[in-house]
Write a structure and sequence with these properties.
One of its GO terms (molecular function) is phospholipase activity. Helices cover about 30% and strands about 20% of the residues. It is an alpha+beta fold. The strands form 3 sheets. It has a 9-stranded mixed beta sheet with strand order 1-2-6-7-8-9-10-11-12. It is globular.
């Protein structure tokens, strides 16, 4: 890596608004990383403390073990990334480390391994760790116990199949004929408290990006971005196994595609280059200048680009759109029609699209994202089966895997129209997409079985919508 330029916060910007942190960073990789780390130092340290606690609940292993394995894994492949992009992100990550340590000198020193483990967390917990537990991957640092003598149970017990709702629509479905995209992140509330960064990155090369992100991440992860390349990018995750240790991480491929992609096809080509199978999603892509939209799915061994449309929609609910991927991966083959799981949201999206065809704009899109139509019960009642997910409001009588009243669900809402994306902004609400509040102490008093999360979940009052924007 190059020597650190004189650390500078010039031009960097942080503002707190309605539960969000707006952050603007610019300059060389090391400079913008330093700005990021310095301005979000306390939030990043808090997020790492929380993920260590949650990993011990989920796996019985602390974050340090994952971080050391991430360092061994990624330091072998990042320097080999095309066009020096792996080195660029390593510079940015080291800048974050330096900024955090400069802002919090009395705390234990943050390391590059910490940041590699943190950025790699989604793919490591969803694909890498299950492959380790099944014996398909041998970690650089061995497990702290014999996996053969351990009953591991479901390897992704905390990662439910229903997690995030999204759509992209265009042409005859929208009020102005241009693309509209929406997304609400679903996650365990204790995990999701850190997902409140609205990040504007102005790199030295490539396109500006405005995205929802996380302290310390060099990509979105929650995956809602608008780019200077004229793209809107979002996704819903898929429960698909498979991991290639010699491939490039999903977090690098996503960032590279957003920074340099300027069409649906170029974004997909950049994203698929070096595929390691990590953190599998249905990606929803929109070209704001042409009005085209598409959906793209990439697993370790399969890929499918749904036909680009100038009129129509694609909607996501954690079931693969491609029949081959559904059948061959086992992720969603039966879920396609199971109203107890994600199929209810799939059907509800179709209903809402039919009802609002030709009228979808900013306001209608917000309403659709906060919808509580339950296709299993036939009622308008927030649950694990509704577009705006409320697992904490679901008694589990018709459970798709979670325990009753599990503290998981919609964390936010994001909406982007073509006009907004051209101006590098989008609407964002922190808290549930519908705006309903969460009082943590009241929730835990009603449901003491989740007492292990006391002190690890934050209240989510009802908040308004704000702009994520370029500075």
């Amino acid at each position: 890596m190059s020597e650190l330029e004189a650390p500078s916060l010039e031009g960097a910007y942080r503002e707190n608004s309605e539960g969000w942190i707006r952050l603007h960073i610019a300059g060389s990789p090391r400079q913008r990383g330093y700005q990021h780390g310095y301005l979000l130092a306390n939030e990043l340290r808090a997020a790492l403390r929380e993920i260590d606690y949650l990993l011990r609940i989920d796996t019985g292993i602390g974050f340090d073990w994952f971080a050391r394995n991430a360092e061994a894994l990624y330091m072998k492949v990042l320097p080999k990334a095309p066009d020096g992009f792996g080195e660029e992100l390593l510079e940015e990550l080291q800048g974050i480390v330096d900024g955090v340590n400069a802002a919090t000198p009395d705390d234990p020193a943050l390391t590059l391994a910490d940041l590699l483990g943190w950025n790699g967390y989604p793919e490591m917990i969803c694909q890498w760790y299950p492959a380790v537990m099944s014996g398909h991957i041998t970690p650089n640092e061995p497990l702290p116990w014999d996996r053969h003598a351990t009953h591991a149970g479901p390897l992704r017990a905390h990662h439910f199949h229903h997690s995030c709702s999204a759509f992209v629509a265009t042409g005859d479905y929208t009020a102005d004929g241009g693309p509209v995209a929406v997304h609400t992140t679903w996650q365990r509330f204790a995990n999701g408290d850190a997902y409140n960064v609205l990040l504007h990155i102005r790199p030295e090369s490539g396109h500006d990006m405005v995205m929802q992100s996380v302290p310390g991440y060099v990509y979105s992860s929650t995956d809602f971005s608008v780019t200077g390349g004229g793209l809107i990018v979002t996704e819903t995750s898929l429960d698909v196994a498979g991991f290639e240790v010699d491939g490039l991480p999903e977090w690098l491929r996503t960032r590279r595609a957003c920074q340099y992609g300027d069409s649906i096809e170029s974004w997909c080509a950049l994203f698929s280059d070096g595929n390691n199978g990590g953190y599998v999603n249905t990606w929803f892509l929109a070209e704001v200048n042409t009005g085209r939209i598409a959906a793209y799915e990439l697993t370790l061994n399969h890929s499918a680009l749904q036909p680009p449309l100038t009129s129509g929609y694609y909607a996501g609910c954690n079931i693969p759109l491609d029949e081959t991927i559904r059948a061959q991966t086992g992720s969603g083959a039966t879920a396609w029609s199971n109203l107890l799981g994600s199929a209810g949201r799939r059907i509800r999206w179709d209903q809402l699209m039919a009802a609002h065809r030709g009228n979808i704009d900013q306001d209608i899109a917000r309403q659709m994202l906060g919808d509580h139509g339950d296709m299993y019960t036939g009622e308008d009642c927030a649950s694990s089966r509704t577009i705006c997910g409320h697992l904490d409001n679901d008694n589990g009588q018709y459970s798709a895997g979670q325990g009753p009243f599990y503290p998981w669900g919609s964390l936010d809402g994001k909406v982007a129209t073509a006009g907004q994306a051209k101006a590098l902004n989008f609407d964002a609400r922190w808290g549930r997409a519908c705006g309903a509040p969460l009082d943590v102490e009241a929730f835990l008093s009603r449901h003491p079985q989740y007492g292990q999360y006391r002190g690890h979940m934050q209240d989510r009052p009802s908040r308004g919508w704000i702009k994520a924007r370029a500075v």
